[in-house]
Amino acid sequence: MAAAIELRHVTKRFLTPAGTAYTALRDLDLAVQEGEFCAVVGPTGCGKSTTLALISGLEPPSEGEVRVRDEIVRGVGRDVGYVFQVDAVFPWKSVLDNVATGPRFRGVNRRDADERARDWIKRVGLAGFERYYPHQLSGGMRKRAALAQTLINEPRILLMDEPFSALDVQTRTLMENELLQLWSTTRASVVFVTHDLEEAIALADRVVVITAGPGTVKGVYRVDLPRPRNVAEIRFQPEFSRIYQEIWNDLRDEVLVSYERTKRVVS
Amino acid sequence: MSALSASSRSAFVGPEPTSSDLARTRARSNRRLLVNGLRLAFLVVVLGSWEIGTTIDATHKDGLWMDPFFYGRPSGIASQLWTWIQNGTAQGPLWLQVATTLEEAVLGFLIGVGLGVIFGAALGRIRLLADVFAPYIKALNAMPRVVLGSIFIITIGYGIWSKVALAVVLVFFVVFFNAFQGVREVDRVLIANARILGASERQLSTHVIFPSALSWILASLHTSFGFALVGAVVGEYLGAIHGIGIVIATAQSTFNPNGVFAAMLILALVAITAEVGMTWLENRLIKWRPNAITDVHI
Question: pTM higher than 0.80, yes or no?
Fold first, then answer.
């Protein structure tokens, strides 16, 4: 079976405002199987978000090729959903209109789109807030709206860029559990970017460690913890700490490299 | 999960008002009373000292504190207004002058806003256009545009359209720059999100870029109606048959300061009415925003 997402020898360079080239990713290879939950961890600035931008088709690779469901990515594809790190719900649309946006863009008439939106709003636990505008909601509720907005398109590929990093710890654990539960019904292929190793292990089938920028794959680890999981409790399992230690040994070096660099920039 | 939504919902619906809530409401209404009282007092003091300063004379050996021949007098302004209302101005009935100026300002405003939004959005969206026209627009904007009034009167004539043209020119640039900036400043993440959700280029404009630019554009409307009024009045002042501007010009040439002040008062009333209308429009159009503007309203 072909992989759902495949990056082959991908390099991505950006032009800096100063006119020099900045290499965000170098010779990155990554494959995510159909229905797999893959977490990508790495130190700050290692090109994790760039990886997602390449898979989504928002950015083209400088070298190498990106395939989604065995087709080379050219532009934004229909099968992709993307949950952003910062708030990306439209502030001028109510929760209902925000969630219905995807189907509306894709040509579904307003009645059907609204009906599907109401269903998804209920599924993410926002029933009763259909008429509210984003600024009237808490950060966690806005994230739920963003999740519904993305999932309503039923993406086969779900890209998540540190989606819960701005939330407080309790809300975050709740949202992680809800994400796993929603995902178990859709079984999309997920690439979940985070800098939090605990979150990565708790959620994923596989954890990919990226080196300090320019990013490339340092190691890949299977997480054979049983599902369904409870994110709040899984951390206490001995197997969890064993995997954590194994990955941390790899990650620590990269974090140190990245930390040394920022120190040098600052001083 | 459901516990979470229930608790967060109560934050919006709110429990029954407590006694401290009621006390706060009372304190707020008392404060409003105080503010309005002080406002009235301020007006009385200003108008009163003006009136007295231009009236007291007989006993004072040096005559008046302020000569009403130059500075007018509130009672004189009031009687001038009353005369205009009853007998009309030298240019005809008062309502006709107000209506003419208003017509010019509104037409100039609408045309200027329309052109400003269209060109601002187009140049904001299409990089090539912006690069080509940038130097010309900067040059035109740097010019004191009121001098164009003379050209318009020569080419278009004494009718309302020369004033409309001047108002358009003044309004256009304010709106243009705001629309341009508004379109440029759209959050990149929102655009990325819309594209992922499946937006076409047209949907991107209507669902993301235009709503986002709208708050910028609306903010410019406040100032631009003022500019439209300036354009209309200055245009009339340069030469017209009807309008508040020509009423002011006539009062000036007959050394009638009461007439100038009375016309100014009428203009101020028109401007304030427009301002209220604009705020109402703004609150209707961007009800999604936290009440940044209504909060300013004391």
Answer: no
